[in-house]
Design a protein that fits this description.
The complex is a heterodimer of chains A (70) and B (133). Chain A is an alpha+beta fold. Chain A has one domain. Helix content of chain A is 46%, strand content 33%. With 133 residues, chain B is α+β, with helices and mostly antiparallel strands. Chain B has one domain. The longest helix of chain B is centred in the last third of the chain and has 26 residues. Chain B is elongated and about 55 Å long. Classes of the chains: A alpha+beta (70), B alpha+beta (133). The interface between A and B is large, with 51 and 43 residues.
């Protein structure tokens, strides 16, 4: 299941964790989210982005699937 | 596939309804009250409801403060700040950014089809969004 966890501190710093997305879908979802936030008057500047261990496990699983399938 | 992002946010041209919600929550949390007029140091009416989005009183802003959006889309506080602590004003500004970010985040996540839950843990607001199946 797709999940997004958000933590907002008192200095306006926001940490967002995306999990359960297939392929590059989490980056697409982040883009949609930032567009909506901007439309609501929240100016967003990205400070850091990093992939989580799940990124690699899902990417490997996808690759194995492709090899087996092809 | 998953990733983690850290972002910094700033309010610019806010949604009026979300701004009202954010301020109302701060008013509740700080034991304040929404008001229709703001008074000056002599307790005369300084400004009325039509001149601001929402106004309130609490321990910091005991004569009241109005929240308005200026011509550049920035959120401004209006009131008589005689003997109101600068620290209290700065604290409120921080709370407003945090609360507004939370309201905008929940609204946006719901628009994307998620079910959202919010929780306040010490000084942080945590939001958990789950895809609606």
């Amino acid at each position: 299941m797709r999940e997004i966890k958000v933590e907002i501190d008192e200095n306006g710093k926001v940490k967002i964790l995306y999990s359960g997305f297939a392929g590059g879908a989490c980056f697409e979802e982040a883009k949609k989210l930032y567009t909506l936030l901007k439309a609501q008057g929240l100016d967003v500047s990205i400070e850091t982005t990093q992939v989580t261990p799940e990124f690699y496990s899902t990417a490997s699983a996808t690759k194995v699937k492709e090899v087996n399938g092809g | 596939m998953s990733h983690f992002s850290a972002i910094k946010v700033k309010i610019q041209n806010p949604n009026i309804d979300l701004l009202k919600n954010a301020v109302e929550k701060i008013v509740q949390e700080t034991g304040g009250q929404v008001v229709q007029e703001i008074r000056d140091a002599n307790y005369n009416t300084l400004i009325q409801g039509k001149d601001f989005v929402i106004g309130f009183t609490n321990d910091t802003f005991y004569r009241g403060v109005g929240i308005k959006i200026d011509e550049n889309g920035e959120v401004k506080l209006v009131g008589d700040f005689w003997r109101v602590s600068q620290e209290g004003i700065e604290k409120f500004k921080q709370l407003l950014v945090q609360r507004y970010a939370s309201e905008a985040m929940k609204y946006s996540l719901m628009k994307l089809g998620y079910k959202v839950q919010e929780q306040k843990v010490q000084d942080k607001i945590m939001i958990h969004a789950m895809e609606v199946m």
